[in-house]
Amino acid sequence: MRICIILDRMNPNIAQAVRLLSERGVKVELIHPEKQLISLSRVRVESDLYLLKSGSDLALSLAGALHALGAATLNPYPTVAMMRNKIVVTRVLQAAGVPTPDSYLTAKADDLVPLLEAGPLIIKPYQGSRGEGIRIVRHVRELAALSSNAPIMAQRYVEPDGRDLKIFCIGARLFGVRRIWPLRTYQDKVGDPFRLSPELRQIARRCGRAFGIDLFGMDVVLSSGRPYVVDVNKSGSFMGVPDAPGLLAEHIYAACRRITRGEPLRYAADAT
Predict the structure, then answer these.
(1) What distance in Å separates the CA atoms of residue 131 and residue 129, rounded to the nearest whole number?
(2) What single DSSP character describes residue 105?
(3) pLDDT per position as a tens digit, 145-188
(4) Class of domain 103-156
(5) Sheet containing 173-179: which strands, arranged edge to edge?
(6) If we measure between CA atoms, which residue out of 169, 238, 252, 178 comes closest to residue 207?
(7) Quick check: 136 and 121 in contact, CB under 8 A?
(8) Distance from C-alpha of 121 to C-alpha of 131, rounded to nearest angstrom
């Protein structure tokens, strides 16, 4: 079996998962689109399965070209491309009954002035990742710093009860990790595991079904005891998940086996 991983950086879990896959006889190729010159005319489907671990423009474009040529990607390329847009992601979550903060979309920062009368807002780059560019706006004067040439996505700021919650899904399994935000150290990324409540499990199931995936990360804020989903990651680092490398390797291996047997990729309908 041949598996290709398209990535921008190597995290410890992926590095160990690659080692475990190689030990099982899988030929694993790593592509770093930002670190190499790619001849577009020579791009062809040469692996049984592609894992898209980067959301950069170049990585998505390469994955899109491979998808157009018939490549199987995990998660599916069209879904990953859609999930890069937080505007789309938020509306899909809302339609699926997943609780999110009140969210607004505009092209003019001045439109947000009346909203600030009810309290602070969080402004997010609509195509951001890893928490980059997120800011809390509490005063009208801070709106002047917002970009005027891109869509502005704003959400009502919900005061967290404590640390943020990260929920990871690998196949049919869910894991919870408490984290400090913003992340400053390696230990912050590892966080502390916690047992998911039935309510959080149900929310995670809805999220997975909404996008048709079972390999993702989800950011949740508890505010006054109520959960709000503030972001969904196409895959995630899976830092803090017990035996993440082994679980990831098994999940990727099983997906590749289905592909080589001529079966379609399947996604867990209900994570447990």
Answers:
(1) 5
(2) E
(3) 886 678 889 999 999 998 989 999 999 899 999 988 766 666 76
(4) alpha beta
(5) 192-194, 173-179, 164-170, 215-223, 226-233
(6) 169
(7) yes
(8) 15
Cβ 25 vs Cβ 1: under 8 Å? yes
Q: Where are the domains of the chain?
A: 2-83+244-251, 103-156
pTM: 0.90
At the topology level, CATH places domain 2-83+244-251 in: Rossmann fold (3.40.50)
φ, ψ of residue 223 in degrees (nearest 5) = -135, 120
pLDDT tens for each residue of 99-117: 999 999 999 999 999 999 9
Q: Which of 220, 221, 200 is nearest to 271 (CA)?
A: 200
Give the pLDDT score at 272: 45
Q: Mark out the alpha helices in the chain (DSSP H runs).
A: 12-23, 57-68, 77-83, 86-95, 113-116, 186-190, 198-211, 244-260
137 strand-pairing partners: 121
Ranges of residues in the chain whose predicted pLDDT is under 50 = 270-272
Judge residue 41's burial from the number of C-beta atoms within 10 Å of its C-beta, 0-12 exposed, 13-18 middle, 19 or more buried: exposed
